[in-house]
């Protein structure tokens, strides 16, 4: 089990950084506006999903802390 400190910054892995760089180059080299629009829409959808996951995770962590607190007292 990996335990991370709250103070530890969130960072991308090296593999994620390389993938992002590769995709950035593909986008930079693309001259087809329809392809760029499609990429933008997919990135928007992905961002919405990541935001929903982060919010869900935060709510579940808060619920777990509240349960743990109630059990102590």
From TrEMBL:
Protein name, as recorded: Uncharacterized protein
Species this chain originates from: Prochlorococcus marinus (strain MIT 9211)
